[in-house]
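User: I'm putting together a teaching handout on how sequence relates to shape, and I'd like one worked example. Could you take DUF2867 domain-containing protein from Collimonas pratensis, show the sequence you're using, and then write out its predicted structure as tokens right after it?

Assistant: Happy to. First the sequence, then the structure tokens directly below it.
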Amino acid sequence: MSAAYPVANLVAPSAECETLLPGHDFVDAYQVRADLPGLSARQAAEAIIKHPPSWISLLMATRNRVVSLFQLRTVEFGVDNPHALPHTLGGFPLVAQSEREVVLGFDDSHLDFRISIRVAPDGPEATQVTLSTIVKTNNLLGRSYLATIMPLHRLIVRHLLEHARFRQQPS
């Protein structure tokens, strides 16, 4: 009997993603196999970020209310700002993009972060999708924030990867 969803596994971060934020304090990477060959990084990123389940949207809305008290940036997770397109994806600023990788993130007073979504062929029938998170804390608030959200971060990333509806858009 096969699982209803693919399993997202913790993997070693790539050397390339480690260079995205020099001096980082935290990096992790999770990988899932998408049963779709030729998936682009943009298609993978949209599948992962733009359709979060309601419980993740609720957690992010709660996070936004709390961090706004500290005058930190908020993100409407999964929602594109039509005035910022094509420079954002799912509420996050687009830092870099190629066929194989999309990098999202921003710098804030408490921490800087990057999200890397990379794709690689996995035989003729599938694509490996890797989501890496890289964080550099800037002060005590950043370190406290990172420690507080870490258990939820792991749960959210795995869930987003395992439940992404990977599909190719027509060219």
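A couple of points you could highlight for students: Residues 9-163 form a domain with the Alpha-D-Glucose-1,6-Bisphosphate; Chain A, domain 4 fold (CATH 3.30.530). The chain has one domain: 9-163.
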